[in-house]
Amino acid sequence: MAGRSAGRALRALLQPPARAAPLTPRGPAASYGTSITSAKIQVNGVHLHYQQTGEGNHAVLLLPGMLGCGQTDFGPQLKSMNKKLFTIVAWDPRGYGQSIPPSRDFPPDFFERDAKDAVDLMQALKFKKFSLLGWSDGGITALIAAAKYPALIHKLVVWGANASVTQEDVRIYNGIRDVSKWSEKVKKPLEEMYGHKYFAKTCEAWVDGISRFAEKSDGNICQELLPDIKCPTFIIHGEKDPLVPRAHAEYIHKHIKGSQLLLMPEGKHNLHLRFAEDFNRQVEDFLH
Fold this sequence. Notes:
The relative contact order is 0.16. The protein is globular, with a radius of gyration of 18 Å. It has helices at 2-13, 70-73, 75-80, 110-124, 137-148, 167-174, 184-194, 196-211, 246-255, 271-274, 276-287, and strands spanning 37-43, 46-54, 58-63, 86-92, 130-135, 153-159, 233-238, 260-264. Strand 5 (130-135), helix 5 and strand 6 form a beta-alpha-beta unit. Helix content is 38%, strand content 18%. Helix 4 (110-124) crosses helix 5 (137-148). The protein has an eight-stranded mixed sheet, with helices on both faces. By secondary structure, it is α/β, with parallel strands linked by helices. It is built from eleven helices and eight strands.
């Protein structure tokens, strides 16, 4: 059973999204603040790369998953979210995307480190208060940020996230450890971004780093912080997500008072890419 679930996870993770959304707006749209800018800013001793678009009063930070960055993980959101209502920032965590150097590592507090970097980035960009949209690892980072920096966070959306790691999760993670088994379609852009050696080494290091949480008796990542999250919270879960079992979404929902949980029957791990139009609409309605 474990081998089959890991195999399903590998196949699902490596399925590219149905359509790759171009990031360059055409025609007069650019004059309405819809162009996407790219820059770096020094935060906590690291030059963090980010993309920004929109001119709305409501600032939103997009937090990517493992090996992810704004460019790879949030094309449809950068392109299509309402740019009159929102100012959208997508960041590359340290060691990912264009926020290299440093090389990515996974000390025991790597999620807390990412949470501090993310919040400090938004403050460096002069956003006094902002909402968080976190996918997968970025969802875990967003949960921690919302709990630890409540005065700064307006609203929170997470999907594909978990507050603990089980032994079954570890089996699933080990199913994606070897990047040589990944499909060419998904492997190629990551190899072009990172080079094969960095890509392969970092994926292995991630599996080791996140699996360490399972060595604790309760597998805890941030369970004790969930009751500290006071902002409006929206949890989305794809019922066909082979990487993150539904029980994780239900646990987060149960322990964040007043949170909403949306189950997407056909959603997998990358539901915000595969069902981008529906996802964007649901999220905009919640944020607005």
